[in-house]
Amino acid sequence: MKYILGLLFLGMSVNINAQDVSVEKSMFGIQTGFSGIWLNNEFKLTNSLALRSEIGIEYDFAVGDHYDGAGFILQPVLTVEPRYYYNLKNRNSKGKNISKNSGNYISLKTSYHPDWFVINLDENITKTADLTIIPTWGLKRQIGNHLTYETGVGLGVRIVYLKPNYYNGNAQNVDGVAENEIQYTPYFTLRIGYTF
Q1: Which residues pair with 193 in a beta bridge?
Q2: If DSSP codes are grouped into helix, strand and coil, which group holds residue 130?
Q3: What sign has the CA pseudo-torsion 11, 91, 144, 26?
Q4: Which domains does the chain carry?
């Protein structure tokens, strides 16, 4: 009888642990990589879905014709990214770490670069805003108690909001209308971070 009760108790605790497999309720962090530095938060929506929001300063190497000759620039970025962590239960069942949302994910990374300021840009070039929407696949892993690393790849679009009468340093469109520029944008990131 003791053995049966012991097995029943063990079965209930395994079942309870399996139901608790979930993304973190809310988690703040700071990350850096070869393309910038960001402050972020991941907020639980469901057991497998988190909403990531971040603000940062990032490099932009492929900014299009509107910044010809600028080289790399630094600009602010605001990002909202719903992430679906699709393998947390599988990782947990194999005894792998899932804390700090350590798992593989797919997401829709939506970033806005406002025209507030751009570092390393000539004064005679008009600052432009842009919006990128990039379906992404990535993975995130924890190192120790607070360090994480992640990588991601994707391909999406960038919409550059050009200002009227100014394009590539030259006056254009005398009627005051500037057409927005749409570009295909590859995405690759490799970041290391600290979670609080």
Answers
A1: 31, 148
A2: strand
A3: negative
A4: 21-195 (2.40.160)
Max Cα distance, the chain (Å): 90
Query: Could you tell me which of 9, 13, 57 has the C-alpha nearest to residue 31?
Result: 57
Note the pLDDT of residue 15: 42
Which among 126, 35, 135, 38 is positioned nearest to 78, based on CA atoms?
A: 38
Most confident residue range from 7-11, 123-127, 137-141, 166-170: 137-141
Decide which of 146 and 127 is more confident: 146
Structure token digits, residue 125: 């070039």
Q: Which residues contact 121 (CB under 8 A, 6 or more apart)?
A: 67, 70, 73, 127
Return the closest-CA partner of residue 64 out of 146, 173, 188, 185: 185
Could you give the CA distance from residue 128 to residue 113 in angstroms, rounded to a whole number?
Answer: 8
94: left (phi over 0), alpha (psi -120 to 50) or beta: alpha
Q: What is the pTM of this model?
A: 0.80
Can you tell me the distance from the alpha carbon of 148 to that of 22, in angstroms, rounded to the nearest whole number?
A: 17
Query: Please, how many CA atoms are within 13 Å of residue 127, restricted to the half-sphere of its CB?
Result: 15
Angle at 40 between CA 22 and CA 110, to 5 degrees: 90
Q: How far apart are CA 189 and CA 53, in angstroms?
A: 16
Of the CA atoms within 13 Å of residue 6, those in its CB half-sphere come to 3
- Judged by average pLDDT, the poorest of 2-16, 48-62, 153-167 is 2-16
